Amino acid sequence: MSSAPAALAGVLPIAAGGDGEFHGPSLEEFFPPVIAFEGTPFELNRIMLIRLLVVALLLIWLFIATRKMSLVPKRGQVINEFLFGFVRNNIIIETLGEKDGKRFMPVLMAMFFFIVGMNVTGIVPGLNIAGSSVIGLPLVLALVSYVLFIYAGLRKHPGSFLKNSLFPSGVPWYLYFIVTPIEFISTFILRPVTLAIRLLMNMVAGHMLLVLCFSATHFFLFTAGGFFGLFSIGTFAFGFAFTLFELLVAVLQAYVFTLLTAVYIQLALAEEH
Q1: Which of 62, 61, 58, 36 is nearest to 49 (CA)?
Q2: Chain segment 145-173, per-residue pLDDT in tens
Q3: Nearest to 135, CA basis, from 123, 118, 150, 116
Q4: N or C: where does the chain have the smaller number of CB atoms within 10 Å of the terminal CB?
Q5: pTM to 2 decimals?
Q6: Most distant CA pair in the chain, distance
Q7: What is the DSSP string of 79-104?
Q8: Whole-angstrom distance, CA of residue 64 vs CA of residue 88
Q9: Which stretches does DSSP call E strand in the chain?
């Protein structure tokens, strides 16, 4: 959120209605009005524009970061190599190993930085909402993860992946009536669903919390006034602290989502399949 209370009026919901009472955030903020192409498949609202902006900025950054790389890196290249190396070593290679890690590195690397970019817009002044705070994007990302681990399993074990996923070895035949439905739900339904819901709800909760803090700051300063204006110091301090925390959550959720995707791929590649 914006770091200055005076700027809050333009980017936050009105903290006080005509009755002079405080009105907190609502879920309506995640369904902003249409800005362009209303009624068409290309309909754009504020969140869609934020997503397009993030994609454009990521493409520009990656183009600049990889355009003139040198053997003796400069400061910018060092930072970029650190970021790429962190994802490569701590998520991809650590989970999948060198050989399989290289195969899936492009999509997993792109997934991590894409999610970070979409998440971090929730604390950027003027944007103030995460591109991943509406269910569509988390669902698409979960679908990508779903396709990746199923593709990996079928490619590595075409004749046994589905069988061993649904009918684990060593289980008495009569228990398959219980085990197989559980395995099907946990492997092929709950995995993508939990990935999408975890990312979505963290971004929704973070946005609501920040809006609540800064809306309260606006209310105490410009509507309540007088002695109540002192409360704005506390709400602003909480808002600032939660902004830093939300930055951590934005990166952490990208890490968790990408790591779990890599883990699912590794499980699909395991020799028991």
Answers
A1: 36
A2: 999 999 999 999 998 899 989 998 888 98
A3: 118
A4: C
A5: 0.88
A6: 75
A7: HHHHHHHHHIIIIIIHHHHHHHHHHH
A8: 20
A9: 34-36, 44-45
